[in-house]
Amino acid sequence: MNAMNAKLFVVFALMATALAEEQAAGDTKKDKRGIYGLGYGGGYGGYGGYGGYGGYGGYASYNLPISHGVSVITKAVAVPVAHPVPVAVEKHVPVPVKVPVAVPVDRPYAVHVPKPYPVEVTKHVPVPVDRPVPVPVGVPVKVPVPAPYAVKVPQPYAVPVVKQIPVPVVQPAVVVEKYNSGWQSGYPSGYSSW
């Protein structure tokens, strides 16, 4: 029962907060302080508190029998079914259906379509041989080569050397001349662009 009270408290606190925010958003007119109120803006705080009408211990959380001796209680009671009732459920399953679709072609032209064609396959059949058949076998044969042999290299030999020579490049000098038109003030400012 304690958990139920805590849940009710949380629900009503959230409802009171939501109502207070809606009322605060709706008040756009600002009245002057002290004209219609109680002096310096003090007033009654409203019904959204802990013990008010919408709070935990207020009147809105319980139904009080105020009628003249007649109380009507409505309660939804689940009635168990004796046996399961079959219900037809229609389930649509997408099935791809190949349907030829005519595509209009303004200029028909011949398209090469690969078709199966006969290919000759050579099938090897083993045949018994009653005599030995000479088969050429590649055997490495040593060839006499006079090694090591002398290689003549001219000594000394010429080696090309690339020598880089500095070449002076004439670059024009840029001269920036400043002219004074007489309209400028002596104080530095970002607005004197004359």
UniProtKB/TrEMBL annotation:
Keywords: Signal. Residues 1-20 form the signal peptide. PANTHER family: LD27203P (PTHR47771:SF3), LD27203P-RELATED (PTHR47771). This is Uncharacterized protein. It comes from Tetragonisca angustula. The lineage of its organism: Eukaryota, Metazoa, Ecdysozoa, Arthropoda, Hexapoda.
